[in-house]
């Protein structure tokens, strides 16, 4: 059975800014413009369109927060740009595509999805993905199923709310046709986010603080230290929330309080989270992030690339960087996980660590022994191209979709 598939994505605003600085000659045609973005291989690139298409499905992708791209579609399809242009254009695109399946690779609010379902009853499946700390499982109840790269998350979903399936990340082999070899002119690199908050990158920040002082690590990240105002807000919430909660319990009225600190408003405040802060000296040494093919080229030029999972992953391996690094043929140094052997063979296809001290030892060994390092890198690449391609992952997603049709 074949179906009409639509992937709706929201791209990082930082990436879109990066893309439009890199590519000055943007095609006039919407489809050519979209393909240029997908050919940069940011995130999964064109993998869903390509591999579901190879299975005989009609496939479409919309990057619905890219204003330049969406304005072009609207102009070429005589759609008026209204105040809420994102939802307005997306609605018209869905009306024209008439999909059977929508993959919401973005946040979508309850009311808008309900409106889409009511207006287009021919849509048979709405699904989404996640791989970060979940604060509200109720949000996911509106989807038919969820995919996640975190095993623990899949188990939680199946117990609490909706059907969920474990889908690993993977690598797009066509990237190898786009990058220009490997110069190996970067000794030790890290690419990724440094995000504050429970379940995110607190451990990562501690390790990077240490490594940038002790190793030739080059960090490529959009990280910025919190501003004075952000610090002040965090401090105020730490003080105000427990104080006002205590006043409410004691029977005090909030009648004369400003609206922003009424008791019912304070209850909904998120727990104040410590903002990650690096010293100014370290922050100055963080390189601007690179995205898409530029990132893959920079990884390929690295002798060793460092990986450390999001805190939410716990003791399970999960993230995308494992496949991106090994896929381009660079030696991966990653944090040890109890199920890592299901993905790669340690010390043969990748290198692992359990402590900061072990990282220092292994970085020194790998830099001092280039033949051994390149042997591990090649073995890792062979494994990824054999077992961890996006084609394999998306074929599994196709099997799940067919179960629901």
Mean pLDDT: 89
**Biggest beta sheet attributes:** 6 strands, parallel
H/E element order: EHHHEHHEHEEHEEHEHHHHEHEEHHH
Instruction: Report the principal-axis shape.
Output: globular
Tally of discrete structural domains = 3
Biggest sheet strand order reads: 2-1-3-4-5-6
CATH topology of the largest domain: the name is Rossmann fold
Kindly state the percentage of residues in helix: 40-55%
Distance between the termini: 9 Å
Describe this structure in words.
This protein is α/β, with parallel strands linked by helices. It folds into three domains: 182 residues, Rossmann fold, CATH 3.40.50; 163 residues, Glycogen Phosphorylase B (Rossmann fold), CATH 3.40.50; 40 residues, no CATH class. It is built from 16 helices and eleven strands. The strands form two sheets. It has a six-stranded parallel sheet with strand order 2-1-3-4-5-6, sandwiched between helices. A five-stranded parallel sheet has the order 8-7-9-10-11, with helices on both faces. Helix 8 links the parallel strand 7 and strand 8. Helix 3 crosses helix 16 and helix 13 packs across helix 15. It is globular, with a radius of gyration of 23 Å. The model has no long low-confidence stretch (mean pLDDT 89).
């Amino acid at each position: 059975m074949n179906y009409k598939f639509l992937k709706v994505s929201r791209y990082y605003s930082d990436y879109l800014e990066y893309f439009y600085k890199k590519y000055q000659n943007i095609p006039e045609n919407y489809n050519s413009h979209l393909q240029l973005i997908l050919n940069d291989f940011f995130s999964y690139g064109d993998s869903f369109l390509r591999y579901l298409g190879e299975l005989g499905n009609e496939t479409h992708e919309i990057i619905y927060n890219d204003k330049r791209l969406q304005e072009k579609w609207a102009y070429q399809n005589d759609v008026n740009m209204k105040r809420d242009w994102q939802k307005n254009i997306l609605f018209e695109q869905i009306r024209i595509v008439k999909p059977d399946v929508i993959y919401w690779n973005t946040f979508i609010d309850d009311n808008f999805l309900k409106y889409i379902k009511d207006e287009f009853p021919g849509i048979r499946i709405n699904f989404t993905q996640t791989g970060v700390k979940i604060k509200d499982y109720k949000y996911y109840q509106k989807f038919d199923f969820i995919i996640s790269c975190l095993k623990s998350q899949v188990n939680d979903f199946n117990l609490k709310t909706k059907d969920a399936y474990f889908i690993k990340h993977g690598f797009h082999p066509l990237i190898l046709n786009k990058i220009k070899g490997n110069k190996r002119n970067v000794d030790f690199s890290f690419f990724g986010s440094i995000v504050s908050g429970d379940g995110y990158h607190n451990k990562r920040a501690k390790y990077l603080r240490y490594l940038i002082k002790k190793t030739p690590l080059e960090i490529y990240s959009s990280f910025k230290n919190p501003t004075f105002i952000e610090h002040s807000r965090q401090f105020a919430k730490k003080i105000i929330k427990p104080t006002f909660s205590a006043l409410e319990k004691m029977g005090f009225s909030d009648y004369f309080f400003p609206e922003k600190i009424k008791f019912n408003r304070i209850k909904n405040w998120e727990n104040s989270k410590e903002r990650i802060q690096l010293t100014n000296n370290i922050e100055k040494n963080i390189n601007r992030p690179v995205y898409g093919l530029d990132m893959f080229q920079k990884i390929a030029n690295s002798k060793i690339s460092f990986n450390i999972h999001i805190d939410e992953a716990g003791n399970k391996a999960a993230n995308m960087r494992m496949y991106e690094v090994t896929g381009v043929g660079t030696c991966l140094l990653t944090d040890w996980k109890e199920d890592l052997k299901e993905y790669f063979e340690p010390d043969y296809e990748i290198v692992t660590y359990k402590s900061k001290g072990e990282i220092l030892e292994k970085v020194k060994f790998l830099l001092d022994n280039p033949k051994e390092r390149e042997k591990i890198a090649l073995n890792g690449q062979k494994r990824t191209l054999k077992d961890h391609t996006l084609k394999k992952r998306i074929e599994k997603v196709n099997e799940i979709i067919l179960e629901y049709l």
